Amino acid sequence: MNTDRLVKTFQELVSIDSPSFGERKMADELTVRLRKLGFTVSEDRAGEYYGGTAGNLYAFRKGSIPGKPLLFSTHMDTVEPAEGKKAVLHGDGRITSGGATVLGADCMAGTAALLEAVTELEEEQADCRALEILFFIGEEKHLRGSAVFDFSCVQAEESYILDLSGPAGTAAIQAPTLIDFEIVVHGKAAHAGFAPEQGVHAIRIAANAVARMDMGRTGASMTVNIGHIEGGVKATNIVPERCSLRGEVRSYSHEQALEEMKKIEGIFQEEAEKAGGSCEVQFTVPLQAYRVPETHSCVKRFRRVCEELGLPVRLVPTFGGSDQSNLALHGVQGLVLASAMEQVHSCEEYTTVSGLETVAEIVKGLMQERA
């Protein structure tokens, strides 16, 4: 393992600003690196859907080991605060940000490990499976890049997404449906001092509805949350005529998530009608639940590689999202692998040199697996 090169690659990638829908510089850098490694690279027009600067990258390279390609993927965007990131290497092997930004190990740790694995195979002229690599935009905005990707070009039947926290050897085999919803309650404005009875109080309707909802962890496999609410005007003497709420439902059962959303809509409709108001309910489903059978080839392959490296295997569910959700929708089953990123989405985010090395070794082993 060329540790110095791996760390340098990580530091160079981290230094590139790549906010969601502002991934142009990152896309250009990765395109150059992939082509030097013998990949053909194409970029789609996903950015145009969102007013972004770059599209998703798809790369392909032939292999010497028979069989369908294996697909590996990370995402190019990082969460804020991310402008001016830098990776600081400490004496104990930890790598942190400078403290004022996220580090960007999510998802540059997996990206650096992936590039190092391919580089080593190229240098060794080692046998390798045919490879497909996808670098997506807008993952941190509920997988918007992969949501509009044309998966008809993908030949692989199994995938490995480098986008999970936890010790090396951990892989997520299950993820939830996520429903994002917005509810707008309409009432009727009136003077709160002179004629409150002539108004219909939108905030009160919303409050009564929220009070009836099951909130938090509502079962073994479901959570419900209202994360934002606003309504009324700055004046305190006006009965508010409008109140809006935004929330989410998550469940390992797609059907149960939809049923819960229907229940929430019914509660708000009832409370609005009872008070003489109305409401509008809109929702989207950016993630759809999936579970990979432990008998699937991608799981068996991952187990073998980890055993060869002496790593304990942990197959876990996750309640978060990754681009694997959209891959699964298009018939590509796969795992989300722990990729040396910890305390992500915070300025305390970090990785370690040993973690990067291990992830690169896992990826390299997967690429050389024959079965």
What does the model show?
The protein is an alpha+beta fold and 371 residues long. The chain folds into 2 domains: 253 residues, Zn peptidases (Aminopeptidase), CATH 3.40.630.10; 111 residues, Alpha-Beta Plaits (2-Layer Sandwich). Helix content is 33%, strand content 29%. It is built from 10 helices and 19 strands. A hairpin with a 4-residue loop joins strand 4 and strand 5. Helix 1 runs antiparallel to helix 4. The model has no long low-confidence stretch (mean pLDDT 96).
**Count of spatially separate domains:** 2
Structural class: alpha+beta
User: Beta-strand level of the residues, as a percent range?
Assistant: 25-35%
Tally the beta strands: 19
| CA distance, first residue to last residue | 24 Å
Q: Rg to the nearest angstrom?
A: 24 Å
Supply the key terms.
371 residues, Alpha-Beta Plaits, alpha+beta
List strands and helices in order, with pairings.
Layout: H1 3-14, H2 24-36, E1 40-43, H3 46-50, E2 57-61, E3 65-75, E4 88-89, E5 94-96, H4 105-124, E6 129-136, H5 144-147, E7 158-164, E8 170-175, E9 177-186, E10 190-191, H6 202-212, E11 216-219, E12 222-231, E13 238-239, E14 242-251, H7 254-275, E15 278-287, E16 290-291, H8 297-308, E17 314-317, H9 324-329, E18 333-338, E19 350-352, H10 353-368
Parallel strand pairs: 3-6, 3-7, 7-18, 8-17
Antiparallel strand pairs: 1-2, 2-6, 4-5, 5-19, 8-16, 8-18, 9-14, 9-15, 10-13, 11-12, 12-14
Helix pairs in contact: 1-4, 4-10, 6-7
